[in-house]
Structures are given as structure tokens and as C-alpha cells.
Specification:
This is Ribonuclease P protein subunit p30. This protein has about 260 residues and is an alpha/beta fold. The chain has helices spanning about 20-25, 70-75, 95-100, 115-125, 145-155, 165, 170-185, 205-210, 220-225, 230-245; strands at about 10-15, 30-40, 80-90, 110-115, 130, 155-160, 190-195, 250, 260. Helix 1 (about 20-25) links the parallel strand 1 (about 10-15) and strand 2 (about 30-40).
Length: about 260
């Protein structure tokens, strides 16, 4: 996370993506990607009766990030981050997140609020980086300007994924509808564009993604910000979440000189 040259970013590449084909993403003009691990919401499992003398088993509800093979890292110039996306319906998710050791291993934390209560909690309380929604279905509640503004003031970003729009017409309608709602209630502030790609065929060239922003209610400057400036701000915000509000990154340039930022 110490790298400063984040460049153009795709901050949601599905963990099922073939990592040996990262060169495709690099050739399309991207400099930074985030491998996304999704934790779906499940019902509470029935409690098992403990036998006398059994040790209490502590189970982490959040899986560890996938390991990036050393040979893959050696063959790419991409900055590879780890992202976690959690589905939830109420504030009880906070306990699972606070108890998780695996959560600390991720660079970016995103959530999918399934209810209005969950959305209110995400905008006003949760220590997260991204709010996103499933493109396969419409947002099941009405979003307000107040909550959107509250999220923006806390440095939270809203995500639009274009890959599902390529695969499915229903997802395409939902994504366009969500994008225009962001424009109507929040003037498209703090938007990031990502692919959500599962395969190389689902990823588009950086300039195609910027042009796609016009369909999603973004002008040329907003589209550029969505894949570069906003993504960079999001990454720096995530570093701040882990290190504290004030931190210094020390790097060495090609002349072995030390610089701070």
C-alpha cells in the first residue's frame, strides 16, 4: 500500500478471475486493481450443543483474502489490492466485523446494504470505504439526499459496476437507474467506476470506461475522476482508516533519495 502511483484503477475484480491473465488488464491501461472477496449474508446457523470438556471453537465469519502467487506478482506491474465486500441487513454485522481478524488483512472494505436501516447505518456509522449494490436487482429502498450527503462528508464512495451490464439486460437497466439516481440526489459525487469482472472478456479499455460514464450521467471530467482521482482518494482514505487520520508515506526514488507524502 506504500505505492503512490495508483494511476487508473479497477477496484473490483472478482476473486474468481484467472490471475495468470492480469496482463490483459494491464494492456487495457489500468495501473491498480483490487481483488474482491464477497461475503454473502446468511441466516444464523443453529447452535450446536457443546459436550462437557470441549474447547470453545472461535470461527472467523470473514474468510482470508486470496493469496497472490509470487510468480504472478513478479510478472505484472499492477498494484494489487485486496478488497472485502459484505452483504448485511442490520447493525448486528458490526459484532462480526469487530471480532474478525481476517478483516484487518484487506485493503478496501465495501458493503452492500440490503435494507434502509442497513443503508442508514453504513452512511452514518460504519468505518468503511465503499457502498455498492447488486446490479441484478433494483435498490429495495428509497435513498435520500441527506444520507448520501452524510456518506460523502465521511469520505465514503459509491460504486457503479459495468461488467454486469455487459452480461445482462436487466442489470444494465438497474445500473443506469442507480447511476441517474446518484446524479439526481448527490450530483454524482464520490462515484467510482469498476468492472466487477469475472473474466478478461468482461473488462473494457480505460478510455471505453470513461466514455461509458456518459450513459451513466457523468460528464467527461466526472468519468475521468471515477476511474482515477476518486479511486486514488478512496485508496488513501482506506490507508487512513488503517493507520489513523494522520500518516506519512516514505518512499525512495530512482536516485535513492527519500521523499515524504
Amino acid at each position: 500500500m506504500a505505492c503512490q502511483n495508483w494511476g487508473f484503477c479497477d477496484l473490483s475484480v472478482n476473486k474468481s478471475y484467472d490471475l495468470t491473465k492480469l496482463s490483459v488488464i494491464e494492456k487495457l491501461g489500468f495501473n491498480t486493481i483490487a481483488i474482491n472477496t464477497l461475503v454473502e449474508e446468511t441466516g444464523d446457523e443453529p447452535k450446536k450443543k457443546k459436550k462437557k470438556g470441549d474447547m470453545k471453537e472461535k470461527k472467523d465469519s470473514i474468510p482470508s483474502p486470496i493469496e497472490i502467487p509470487k510468480e504472478v506478482q513478479a510478472n505484472t506491474k499492477l498494484n494489487i489490492l485486496q478488497r472485502l465486500t459484505i452483504e448485511f441487513s442490520d447493525s448486528s454485522i458490526a459484532h462480526k466485523m469487530n471480532q474478525s481478524e481476517n478483516l484487518k488483512k484487506y485493503d478496501i472494505i465495501a458493503v452492500i446494504p440490503k435494507t434502509l436501516q442497513a443503508f442508514q447505518y453504513a452512511c452514518g456509522t460504519m468505518d468503511i470505504d465503499v457502498i455498492t449494490f447488486e446490479p441484478e436487482c433494483r435498490i429495495p429502498f428509497k435513498m435520500s439526499r441527506k444520507l448520501y450527503r452524510q456518506a460523502i462528508e465521511r469520505g465514503i464512495f459509491f460504486e457503479l459496476m459495468y461488467s454486469p451490464a455487459i452480461r445482462d439486460s436487466t442489470s444494465r437497466k438497474n445500473i443506469i437507474s442507480t447511476a441517474h439516481m446518484y446524479h439526481a440526489i448527490g450530483k454524482s459525487k464520490n462515484i467510482i467506476l469498476s468492472s466487477g469482472a469475472e473474466q478478461p472478456i468482461h473488462i473494457r479499455d480505460v478510455h471505453d470506461v470513461i466514455n461509458l460514464g456518459f450513459i451513466l450521467g457523468l460528464n467527461s471530467n466526472e468519468s475521468l475522476e471515477a476511474v482515477r482521482n476518486n479511486a486514488r482518494r478512496l485508496i488513501l482514505k482506506s490507508i487512513g482508516r488503517q493507520c489513523g487520520k494522520h500518516f506519512i508515506i516514505i518512499t525512495k526514488d530512482s536516485d535513492n533519495k527519500i521523499s515524504e507524502s
